[in-house]
Amino acid sequence: MSAEATNPEAAPTDVAVRRRGRARIDLRRLGRAALLNATAGPAPRDRLPDAISHVAEAHRAHHPEADLTVLGRAYVLAESSHRGQFRKSGEPYITHPLAVTLILAELGAETTTLTASLLHDTVEDTEVTLDQVRREFGDEVAYLVDGVTKVEKIDYGAAAEPETFRKMLVATGSDVRVMSIKLADRLHNMRTLGVMRPEKQARIAKVTRDVLIPLAERLGVQALKTELEDLVFAILHPEEYETTHALIADNPGAGDALGAVAEQVTTVLREAGIGAEVLVRPRHFVSVHRARLKRGELRGCDFGRLLVLVAEDADCYAVLGELHTCFTPVISEFKDFIAAPKFNLYQSLHTAIAAPDGAVAEVLIRTHRMHKVAEAGVVALGNPHVGQEPDTAGPQADDGERVDPTRPGWLSRLLDWQQSAPDPDTFWTSLRADLAEDDEITVFRADGSAPGTISLPAGASCVDAAYAQHGEAAHTCLGARVNGRLAPLSTVLGDGDTVQLLLAQDAVSGPSPEWLDHARTPAARIAITGWLRAHPESAAPPAPTDPRPQVSVPADRRSGAELHADLDGEQPAAVRPAGCCTPVPPDEITGFRVRGGSVTVHRARCSAVDAMRGLGREPVTVRWGDTPQGRVTLVAESFGRPGLLADLTEAIATFGAAVVSANVEPPSEQRVRHTYTLHLPDVTGLAALMRAMRDVPGVYDVSRAHPSRGVS
């Protein structure tokens, strides 16, 4: 929210216009209309203010019987409360909530969502209170407005952004319309990002890429997701964007090739007596870029797809049969998302056909209703609580809040594990990792108890299933039966597997550190990590069974943090942290013997560990001592500007960290990478130090050094 700038001429704008075939809102015209409304006084009771007429027109196209009176009242409150506020481009601030509301209206959102959208920044940026919104517009609107209102930065400091998203996701668990408004809000802010500083553009674009776009995908709002992808693509990858832009511009006749195939398909379906609408859908920029990477040189039909819309589900399969009979099908491209819908509500048949001239065209087949859901996702579902009695409005959460009956399984899992995240940094990191998992599997519970299925990300193991089904009781899990056969907890589950978790009868057992190697879900990782921290003795290596003593050798003093290696009667020359991943407490670590009799210690997930194992090297058990100090290597990515190095060094010195070495790479596309090796007096302050470095103007990312990390 709180959009700060607008740039209607921004490069990606023509992408959306080309794809959607409609004119973009003229914000200057809306601004003039808003000012005229303000000076002319309230509109007559029987007429909406001119500035909101375009919203009313879009809303009535989807909801002909909608009562527009409440929208008029919401606009009057929003305009009067934002009066005198302007965006950085000079337009009156009211143009932002108007634009956000129009985006949702065109997707088919119902009146309550549009009302809240008009008011979504009033509580955050004006003197309007949440109680006032509740009195004038009811509990539903107040809940949605509160859900998208940011937490106060003065209260949360650097953790304000993660905590805002946590608050928003919790609110979304009760009503997915909260996230619908946030996605539309971010889309308009991304459209109008042009006059912000480049580093702020990059920072907003990265959060959009890592959090908002995956959420749009999971909620099925493809219309917003695809445009957000293009806008992020233009900011974070300007060279690739320009290459793709030129590729599309150099192929103006690409639509003709698809149009010719569309005419052939239309003729075939007409002769078969199947009523269908055949449309040509150009690919958006990111889709063209991906197709080029996958296929190399693109031909005319590669720049778009055919969309076939029919009335009934059965007609979809009838169309598929005719296409596969009259054209040559590309069997490897066939997917049936009608019989097996995606977890984000998406349904469609996908295929590809070769026309007589050799042109291959991808085809999407769906009903009109499927198409609406595919484009608008949860927005198309309307009010999830409509028709329910106030005292029995849907399922109830543990805290008494009602639960959105349309809430998807992935959101329920996210809401469960976020409660256990001990701090904002863990939540933020886990959220990004969770949203990066874009495939989902369903496994069946062998005990037959309700619910009978467990939804997990692809690649999840029996460890993940145990914590998804039993929560913290999974600490005592001993093993599993997968499809009736005994299997280790490390077993990776497949879609449709049946799993039975075997729990110990006593509460003494607990997870081992090795479980973290097999845990894919944040819920499992957070629970295991918490238990291991509470029971540090469980992470210690078992006592030797032979009489030979173990030797505990401290780390090389230059590393600062104290490390110990447990060997059978041998004396290593030194125990040193690896320079590739610079482990610091409380990182999970493993060691390997190297030449000269030393032991090199790596972070458990360092790529060098897999390389060592691949060479047949046996790991050495290593552990941290009690010394809180340590050495770490950080990489700061920034836009070049005078004084940046001094400001970064000052931020580092504020935390008492000593710079052991520093390296600044030559600028590339006005972006600079700084690599610092630091000695920290207390490694527990590492997360706070990284946040302070990110807050330096010009810096858009700070991360731990990693051997396989590339330039983004």
In short:
The protein is of the alpha+beta class. The protein is 41% helix and 17% strand.
Describe the structure.
With 712 residues, the protein is of the alpha+beta class. It contains 26 helices and 21 strands. The strands form four sheets. Strands 1, 2, 3, 4, 5 and 6 form a six-stranded mixed beta sheet that branches. Strands 12-13-17-15-16-14 form a six-stranded mixed beta sheet, covered by helices on one side. The protein has a five-stranded mixed beta sheet with strand order 8-7-11-9-10, with helices on one face. A hairpin with a 5-residue loop joins strand 15 and strand 16.
Average residue pLDDT: 78
Q: What is the rounded distance between the termini?
A: 26 Å
Sheet having the most strands: 6 strands, mixed
Give the beta-strand count.
21
Class computed from helices, strands and strand pairing: alpha+beta
Helix coverage percent: 40-55%
How much of the polypeptide forms β-strand, as a percent range? Answer: 15-25%
Net shape: globular
Structural key phrases:
712 residues; alpha+beta; 6-stranded mixed sheet; 26 helices; disordered C terminus
